[in-house]
Amino acid sequence: MLPEYYQFHHPTKVMYGEGLVGDFAHELEELGVKNYFLVSDHVVDGLGLIQPIREGLAEAGFRITGEFYDVPQDASVEAVESISRQAKDSGAEGLIAVGGGSVIDAAKAANFIFSEGGDLIADYSGAATLVRPLKPFIVIPTTAGTGSENTLVAVIYDVANKTKLLFSDKFLLPDLAVLDPLMTRSLPPGLTASTGMDALTHAVESYVGVDASPHSEALAVAAIKNIFQYLVRATKNGDDLEARGGMLIAANMAGSAFSHSMVGCVHAMGHAVGGLTRVPHGVANAILLPHGMEYNFEVSKEKYAALAPVMGVDTTGMSVDEAARAAIAAVRDLLRQLNALDAIPVRLKDAGVPHESLPAIAEAAAEDGTIVYNPREVEAEEILIHVRNAY
Amino acid sequence: MAVFKNHEVFKEVIVGFFNLLGDTPQVADRLLASKMVIRFIYSDPDLAVVVDCSGDKMDVRPDDMDTKVIVEMSMKADIAHKFWFGKVNLTMALTRRQMVAKGPVPKILKLLPAIKPSYAMYPKYLDDNGYAQYNIH
């Protein structure tokens, strides 16, 4: 059945290629500005990943007016304000973010003040607050998970009020995303696995969510196929550039899928686990994904059954129920393979979640903003059963 | 052409409906638990209404532009009217800029299940209070 209404808006140009970070500058010509401020972190710089970008831009006549490396693990309001101020003072006309989700989100949010001035929280926290495009924004991801280079959302931590702020606007979408597998080659197995499972969660949840559309479903399916093909390989051998590239593309497509169709109860539980016990987002989602699929089984089984062959299951002769169960089993199996590589835990207790926190996790999950998009109503008592199963 | 022809009629309708929600425990209890304070800024016709759930009962204050609110939502009066029939997907409306939200959007999304019963209440409220001509059948 087709949705009554949907739209698909994807203005971000996506480029993929090995070694592309040193050779993408000609794409900036059409953006009309020459001076860029670069945002990254010390780890990425320490790995020598920035140098080819600097050289490629300089060779093509572009100037990096300044660089900022102090983005904390959770992108903060202070970092966002520093980036926008330093970028402005340096005479930059556009921003380039090189990093994972925090770096990308910090630069994305900084573009509000850098382009339009004003106060980050008072003027832009919320949805659809902008009326015109921001200054040019280029993203080069160094993880394959968040897909933030392809989403209209930025999440920023307000340290003073201990709260996460959401910024959502179509004008936040970057102008250009450069996907280069050389940029993720040094990602350690643990981060490769958890960020990859985060991308799988984006894809599965956007595929079964209430706002799924033919466009988002197509991207989600393609992302899932890539993740099942490449995630174990990329985790096992970081130098496998085909697997690294496949995962970058998967995360990018999953990002676009969930940017349009959102996520559901797995993210609700994951946010609760992260908020209450500080388990990293990707790890929490990885552990909880099969359990969230179980929670939605009755309402989503046709869709799970359709995903089973994409996950590599031979569904010949299977009923819908059997194929749907096989899809969940495939996700569990993927998680077990990653666990066998010592890359990720499969149970909440192994991730350090205290048993006594489970009821609070279920309560917080039932209050999370993402439950609106889940295909089944989220009740704390029901969720608690699945959180306990994940323990 | 706008559904509501003037400010006075729209104000009566929307403020009366918010007050009805405040008197309906099934809806009001969950809104009060959220402690949300929200200002709706409507256009065509223009109107501002603050719905304050920070106290023991819901306080609906038309023309209040002074209160410091948690969330401010702007939209055309026609969109608000359609919303209360359950005919507007909030996230799609935000994406299409039919609504603009300033503040913590997830807190608003969390309230959607709480206000679900109001979609059935709105048409009945219009019929019962002499606004049947605005009903969508």
Task: Note down, in words, how this protein is organized.
The complex is a heterodimer of chains A (391) and B (137). Helices cover 50% and strands 11% of the residues of chain A. Chain A has 391 residues and is an alpha/beta fold. Chain A folds into 2 domains: 13-183, Rossmann fold (3-Layer(aba) Sandwich), CATH 3.40.50; 189-390, Up-down Bundle (Dehydroquinate synthase-like, alpha domain). In chain A, the strands form 2 sheets. Chain A has a 6-stranded parallel sheet with strand order 1-9-6-4-2-3, sandwiched between helices. A 3-stranded mixed sheet of chain A has the order 5-8-7. Chain A is globular, with a radius of gyration of 20 Å. The model of chain A has no long low-confidence stretch (mean pLDDT 96). With 137 residues, chain B is an alpha+beta fold. In chain B, 45% of the residues lie in helices and 20% in strands. Chain B contains 6 helices and 5 strands; from the N terminus they run ααββββααβαα. Chain B has helices at residues 7-22, 25-34, 77-84, 90-95, 105-115, 118-128; strands spanning 37-43, 47-52, 59-62, 71-76, 99-102. In chain B, helix 1 packs across helix 6 and helix 2 (25-34) packs antiparallel against helix 5. Chains A and B meet through strand 5 and strand 8 of A and helix 4, strand 5 and helix 5 of B.
